[in-house]
Write a structure and sequence with these properties.
Helices cover 28% and strands 38% of the residues. The chain is of the alpha+beta class.
């Protein structure tokens, strides 16, 4: 009787920990979001970079982007709330937008192309995963290559017949 009770408490505690872990994994997931102000082509049409975009997350400025620049924000959860101050062309009028973007759970680094987003394109056009470029590695064999005549000879061969 006592062993059944102990087993039941253990199973209940493990199940509750798994439920808590699952909930925290969804609501506490951190994302690095890269905000791009770069031109892009989609379905044969070019969407030009905007003159200037200033992005605010939680009232704090996270990026001030001119054309062809990228900024970064970190957020917790499955959505990004960002306020944008957009100037489309030099000496143009500044427009303000407040947007909430759902973030895919499966991506760690997320790139959002703001000109494509503001043009009303679908998520597959403005949203992509950031994949860092691999660091160039030196060929490990290049340092250990032995050229003819550079072999290390055992001591007996060096001494010869003395």
């Amino acid at each position: 009787m006592k062993s059944k009770r102990v087993a039941l408490f253990r199973a209940a505690s493990i199940l509750s920990l798994l439920v808590i872990a699952g909930v925290m994994m969804v609501i506490g997931r951190g994302h690095t979001v890269y905000l791009d102000n770069k031109s892009m082509d989609y379905n044969g049409q070019t969407y030009a970079a905007l003159y200037k975009i200033v992005a605010f997350v939680d009232g704090e400025q996270v990026a001030s982007l001119s054309g062809r620049e990228r900024g970064m924000a970190t957020c917790i959860g499955q959505g990004l709330g960002v306020a944008l101050e957009v100037t489309r062309e030099k000496d143009g009028e500044e427009q303000s937008f407040t947007v909430t973007l759902p973030l895919p759970y499966s991506m760690d680094g997320i790139i959002i192309n703001l000109p494509a987003y503001l043009a009303g394109l679908p998520a597959e056009a403005y949203l992509s995963e950031f994949i860092p470029a691999p660091e160039p590695s030196e060929d490990e064999d290049s340092e250990t290559d032995v050229l003819p005549g550079d072999e290390i000879l055992p001591d007996e061969e060096l001494l010869g017949d003395i």
